[in-house]
Design goal:
A hairpin with a 6-residue loop joins strand 9 and strand 10. This protein is 37% helix and 21% strand. Among the domains are: 151 residues, no CATH class; 120 residues, no CATH class; 95 residues, no CATH class. The chain is α+β, with helices and mostly antiparallel strands. 28% of the residues are buried. The chain contains 11 helices and 23 strands. This is Flagellar hook-associated protein 2. Pfam families: FliD_C, FliD_N. It comes from Clostridium oryzae. Its main location: secreted.
Amino acid sequence: MSSVSSTSSSTSYNRMTGLATGVDTDKYVEQMMSGDQTKLDKANQNEQYTEWQQEAYVDIITKLKDFYKKYLDTATATSDTSMLNANNFNGVAASVSDDDSKYISASTLPGAAKGIYSIAIEKLASGAKVENTSGTLTAGDLSIKIGDKTFNVNVTSTMTMDDFINSLKNTYSGDDALTNHVNINYSQLTGKLSLETKDTGFTAEMQISGTAAGIFGGAATSNGNDAVVYITEPGMANPVKKTESSNKFTIDGVTYNLQSPSPTDSASSSTLVPPITEEGITEKGGVVYNTTRASDGTLTTTMYGQSNISVKANADDSYKKIKAFFDDYNTLIGDINTKLTEKKDSDYQPLTDAQKKDMTEDQITKWETKAKKGILRNDTVLSGMLTSLREAVYGTVKGAGLTNTQIGITTTSDYKNGGKIQIDESKLKDALENRADQVFDLFSQYSFNGSSSDDTKGIIRKFGKIVDGVVGFDGTLIQKAGYTDTRWEVTNDLSKSITEQKKKITLMKENFAEKQQRYYNMFATLEANMNKLNSQSSWLSSALS
């Protein structure tokens, strides 16, 4: 921002004044212009102060935007920092043994029950698949339909397998590439080429047709396969069979990520010890027994080895993330509250150029630091935002089942802190370990019972709305002070004010210069008349002598 400049009535080296009259013209003109100089200095100071004010607002806007992007915006916050990510409110953690990790990995969401979960994996989910095992191509048109997209490939008689694969990789349906929907795998060792849909499960479908369909065994429709698993949750006597379209799915707060089918064996039910005499699924000694009856009444049992997932209370990681959020929040609130409460010292005003001439750079810096204090004192937008944030912490969240005080989240007792948050570690960890789903709702809930009114929204949702209203696309502060890469960058209120002040100062300088010149012209006329008088006096004296 520009510094304050002033138009002083300094001596012009083109003027020769006071030779005849002995009058210090510059001194008198400066005195006569002192009132105008004061007005001009004041106008420059006001403009500088407005620029400082804009800089102070932009600094606050930047801090608020950085905070919003880090914690409140799902588009920019990372999985570790987003306060709308359920994983950051988890009071339990899942683990598997090294031996079981080749079959399964797992994680938990808020609300997962503690205990041992067992899973046997009969089959992994897979996509729809077609293969070429001959290593030969059939010339003609090849049509590959996936969902509502049809991809057409022209296979020529001169194509090599590499040419064909490159053609597949560069095939589009409109702007959509075939490679967005299928994985193309080719083994130089075996010469086998396969296409498999990226979507898995029985509903994944791929249709092959056209005169070149023989490449993949002829025109046909292929479907994917669902994953088949047997899960035993804590407290359950027998496993429950589940089919899932993906190898990663969540049930009752536990996310299962299937890696490989479990070890399996099959035998006649009568040969088992003890023999199994009824159809059904049972579990014993880490083995799942799935017994089925054939049409002739014969019972056959298939056995699957189980992998165990241990879900234990562990709120340390979530506590650290929530605390980090409120630490940054308190820093932000502290910075804003400092600006709102610091007192202005009227003895320190923006410096004029004339004042700066007699000061060192260090002196100027120290002076301007003091002059900038109190520049945002009692700002209504910022103070209103702090009030709204405090109310968001203490406000009711219908349907959450918890309040901020129940989980140890409260504002400090010192009102001068502007609503800083303090955390009872024991209470928060206990809530995360035992009622994590409700803690997450308290922070992130968007609606309840079909209503999305403000009193149904979680603390973070309210925070996001409040901050966005101040520094969002058309935020109150954005319109007032502007911000880079927004439509208010140059059309904001303060920029308009600065522009008007600059115009006023330019006009004042022009008037100042004109008025100053008139005074010099008056003294120049006095000098000329005095010269004439002196000349006449000299002539008369010479004539008389």
